[in-house]
Design goal:
Oligomer: single chain
Helix content: 40-55%
Shape: globular
CATH architecture of the largest domain: 3-Layer(aba) Sandwich
Largest sheet: 6 strands, parallel
CATH class of the largest domain: Alpha Beta
Structural class: alpha/beta
Distance between the termini: 52 Å
Order of helices and strands: EHHEHEEEHEHEHHEEEEEHHHHHHHHHH
Radius of gyration: 22 Å
Strand order of the largest sheet: 5-2-1-6-7-8
Length: 436
């Protein structure tokens, strides 16, 4: 076991949540066992007001926490993760975060800020964009290039990060903008590990499935860890891997979660044990998605899809349906809209995705399950104006909600008819209409 006193921080990470601590930290904890990799410890930047309780708990534990890996057999294996060697909560003091970004030891900034975190609001104070801009200002003076690596579920997440950060720099830090275009790299990456928001044991404990994957574009301007030693796959093009994962795994999560929540399901494995949902997801992957997925070389798509169904059914992980429902607006834009656009363009079967949109509409509008149980809606990127759209006189006003507006769904009479039927009928009646 490595001596933490020999580790220096080469990475600053924004978003020290469960997924990060089950994924990147897991890989890094393995990597730091190599003596020549001891300069790649992670400094955690926590900048959200709600981060206080977790920050305090992690700080008191010197950043050390338990990662509990849950196997389908029911076996659990606990890993003591010790690679988080520094930590700061920006609400208390932003300066240590900026100093760490500016440090010559820091070569990479990593991000898990959710799909909606890349929406730029120049007027927002102390955003992730502001922190990094302030750090880059000092790096620019010292002539220190750096890599910003997104670890979020976005298509071309590095390209998305580059667009967001450079647009912010253009608006607020024009001197940094021109420097960053030459001295900051933004690799694309694909991340995968189901990490439920389990609340048991200590607040710092993290639970996850046994499956893990990370595919990264090898584009690091200031050097990188030898992550390939611990199972990370480097490539020149992440696109086929991210398309496969986002359009199959993440889109399937969205398809199952809203109707399941409306019917009162709480756990994803329970949902998959219901043959209706198992068949719904299998048909969606086989018929609606697979024809449009470029398969990475060496990957058997049939095996990949079967593996997804097994992962969803892992009762030891027991992921929460409510977690999958959160931040739907941002997720639909990434996981669903691209596939729906292709289906519409090719005049293919749209009933399953009409069922999804109708379930999402009812979830948002009524905020109740079909049994009358209150639903706690978590939509941090939905505006008050979007909320007004949901209460419009016409059901079709919902199609004006971003990100659906670009699809012109009102001009698709077959889709409209399916959608209206599913809105006006129960989920179980919807399944019957789908022939399940």
């Amino acid at each position: 076991m490595y001596d933490r006193n020999t580790i220096s921080a080469g990475i600053v990470h924004f978003g020290v949540g469960n997924f990060h601590r089950a994924h990147l930290q897991y890989y890094n904890n393995l990597l730091l066992e190599y003596e020549d990799q001891r300069n790649w410890g992670i400094y955690g930047a926590m900048i959200m007001p709600a981060d206080g309780p977790l920050y305090s708990a992690l700080k008191s534990a010197a950043g050390i926490y338990d990662l509990i890996v849950c196997y389908p057999s029911g076996e659990r294996k606990t890993h003591c993760i010790r690679s988080l060697i520094g930590l700061c909560w920006g609400e208390e003091d932003p300066e240590p975060i900026i100093e760490q970004i500016a440090s010559p030891d820091t070569k990479i900034i990593t991000l898990t800020i959710t799909e909606g975190g890349y929406v730029v609001n120049p007027d927002k104070s102390k955003s992730v964009f502001w922190y990094i801009a302030e750090g880059l200002r000092r790096r620019m003076v010292a002539g220190l290039p750096i890599t910003i690596l997104s670890c979020d579920n976005l298509q071309h997440n590095g390209d998305t990060a580059a667009k967001a950060f450079l647009s912010y720099f253009d608006a607020m830090y024009p001197d940094i903008a021109s420097w960053a275009r030459e001295n900051v790299s933004f690799p694309n990456s694909m991340v995968d590990r189901i990490t439920p928001a389990t609340k048991s044991g200590k607040i710092t404990d993290v639970f996850c499935e046994d499956f893990i994957q990370w595919v990264v574009e090898d584009n690091f301007i200031a050097g990188r860890p030898a992550w390939e030693r611990v199972g990370v796959y480097f490539t020149n093009d992440v696109t086929p891997y991210e398309n496969m994962k986002l359009s199959l795994l993440n889109a399937s999560h969205s398809l199952l979660c809203y109707p399941a929540y409306l019917e009162g399901f709480k756990k994803v494995d329970a949902v998959l044990s219901d043959s209706r949902y198992h068949n719904l997801i299998k048909d969606f992957m086989d018929v609606d998605v697979a024809p449009y997925v470029p398969v990475p070389e060496g990957v058997d798509l049939g095996v990949y899809k079967e593996t997804l169904l097994r992962r969803f059914s892992n009762a030891a992980v027991s992921d929460q349906v409510s977690r999958l429902c959160g931040d739907g607006v941002a997720k639909f834009a990434v996981y669903i809209v691209p596939t729906l656009a292709k289906i519409l363009a090719n005049e293919k079967y749209t009933k399953r995705l009409a069922f999804l949109l109708a379930s999402y509409y009812k979830y948002l509008k009524y905020e109740r399950t079909e049994l009358g149980e209150k639903i706690d809606i978590f939509e941090p990127h939905m505006t008050a104006e979007d909320k007004k759209i949901l209460t419009g006189d016409s059901l079709l006003d919902f199609f004006e909600l971003s990100p659906f507006a670009a699809l012109d769904l009102k001009d698709e009479p077959s889709f409209v008819d399916h959608y209206k039927f599913f809105v006006e009928h129960s989920v179980s009646e919807g399944f019957k209409a789908l022939g399940i």
